[in-house]
Design brief:
It catalyses: (sulfur carrier)-H + L-cysteine = (sulfur carrier)-SH + L-alanine. It holds the Pfam family Aminotran_5. This protein is an alpha/beta fold. It folds into two domains: 129 residues, Aspartate Aminotransferase, domain 1, CATH 3.90.1150.10; 234 residues, Type I PLP-dependent aspartate aminotransferase-like (Major domain) (Aspartate Aminotransferase, domain 2), CATH 3.40.640.10. It is built from 13 helices and twelve strands. The strands form three sheets. It has a seven-stranded mixed β-sheet with strand order 2-8-7-6-5-3-4, with helices on both faces. A three-stranded antiparallel β-sheet has the order 9-10-12. Strand 9 and strand 10 form a beta hairpin. Helix 9 packs across helix 13. The relative contact order is 0.17.
Length: 375
Amino acid sequence: MKRIYLDHAATSPMHPEVADVFTEALGTLYGNPSSIHGTGREARKALDDARRVFAKSIGANDPEIIFTSGGTEADNFAIFGIAAKKDGKHIITSAIEHHAVLHACEKLEHEGYDVTYLPVDENGLVRAEDVKNALRDDTILVTIMLGNNEVGTVQPVAEIGELLKGTDVTFHTDAVQAYGILPIDVESLGVDLLSVSAHKLNGPKGIGFLYQKKGTALAPLLYGGEQERKRRAGTENVPAITAFAKAVEISANEREEKAEAYESYKRIFRDILEKEGVPFKENGTNPLPHVLNISLPGIEIESFLVNLDLAGISASSGSACTAGSIDPSHVLVAMYGADAEELRNSIRFSFGLGLTEEAVAEASQKTAQIYKRLA
């Protein structure tokens, strides 16, 4: 049985061309980029070339890119780095952020910071007006994600960035789920810090970057060598960084084509469910093109996911970072309340590399069959 992978929002398969670059770099780019000899300089050039690709992809300057081990480190770096540098004890975030943001904020609360967790509406949308109303004289940071990883709702980051102009408040966005899917320009968004991870767009795991706008003060998380202009100690992962750069180049060239394909997959999935008489409701509004989160009344999510898995379909109930947890999705709780049925019957299907319309149609057909059996 050939599996149908519909969990690309959790992680994505590495693109074959990216894997080739990664494999080759493992054998050839073994020098330490901080070494002054030829082998080291070769690795340094690879880093510089990759940094240029990342900066161009978001409209930034090369020195504004800091390599990290992924999105979690980038989020933590942004939050703790600002807290250590700025006077003031108030942070604004939303109730639907990734746990890399939420748990970092909770850690700061234990250290005496005051964190405002903004609510969202039933579509999973943060209101810019709520950000404005929550601002205080001691607010040092606003951190609002660009696109939600569970329901896909795209947040009004540019609108929030506009209202923060002229203030001393630092603005961070977690763009991990949106990078490579949406066009991103840091100037248009008005952000000071932006987090990205490679494995969401067919790159290797364990690598990402943090955009740090020039002039934004940030304390380091790691101490050791003077890598990344003394901002992030540790010898850079050159093979992963070069492979990540290749993934970004491919993504940039194919972004519009992929978005159209993903919207087509969504239509196919919905149409078949409707044709089969399966009642469902979409969770979220204005979602990222590759995310389809639906509520299926009358089911229990655990047994439904097990049956999907047995049928060869990989899907999820939300963030993979909470796999194995019995707690309901914090995103759906924020949208619908702690007692809502959606917490027990919502499934996220997410699309990406390697899928075809035929495979998506087959997955939807099997989903309908399982629903009729279990509901």
